[in-house]
Amino acid sequence: MRPTIKATSQRRRIIIRGIVQGVGFRPFVYKQAVSRGIHGFVLNDTNGVTIEAEAMPAILDAFELALRVELPPLAYIDEFDSSRLPRAMMSNLPLFRVRREWNAMP
């Protein structure tokens, strides 16, 4: 059973810079997010990888920890920045997606 987003959920933007493109990082992020019932998306951009994720705070904390320590073998993180965003009620959207660009449908 997947966790549902409740009134106490948080939304975060995570920007990761380093060797995170072309090494299977987006599929890794997708797997980590879906296994935790997180709503949102991941995409490559000029900064590296950007993730927007919405779930309960403890779930997001565990997600961020996994992103830092369970990397794909060829990935390397130089910078990891996480900031809180206003909730977007992403529970109305598909669970988690890999997006090709910012202006693509979530």
Give a verbal description of the structure.
The structure is a single chain. The chain is 24% helix and 36% strand. Helix 1 (25-36) packs antiparallel against helix 2 (57-69). It is built from two helices and five strands. It has a single domain (10-98), classed as Alpha-Beta Plaits. It has helices at 25-36, 57-69, and strands spanning 10-19, 39-45, 48-55, 76-85, 96-98. The chain is globular, with a radius of gyration of 13 Å. A five-stranded mixed beta sheet has the order 4-1-3-2-5. With 106 residues, the chain is α+β, with helices and mostly antiparallel strands. The mean pLDDT is 86.
Q: Which stretches are poorly predicted, pLDDT < 50 over at least 5 residues?
A: none
The multimeric state of the shown protein is single chain
Termini Cα gap: 23 Å
Specify the number of helices.
2
Number of domains: 1
Radius of gyration: 13 Å
CATH class placement = Alpha Beta
Strand order of the largest sheet: 4-1-3-2-5
Derived structural class: alpha+beta
- Based on the coordinates given, report the CATH architecture: 2-Layer Sandwich
For the residues shown, what is the average pLDDT?
Answer: 86
* Sheet of most strands: 5 strands, mixed
**How would you spell out the order of helices and strands?**
EHEEHEE
Strand content of the residues, in percent?
35-45%
Net shape? globular
Features:
106 residues, alpha+beta, Alpha-Beta Plaits, 5-stranded mixed β-sheet, 2 helices, 5 strands, globular
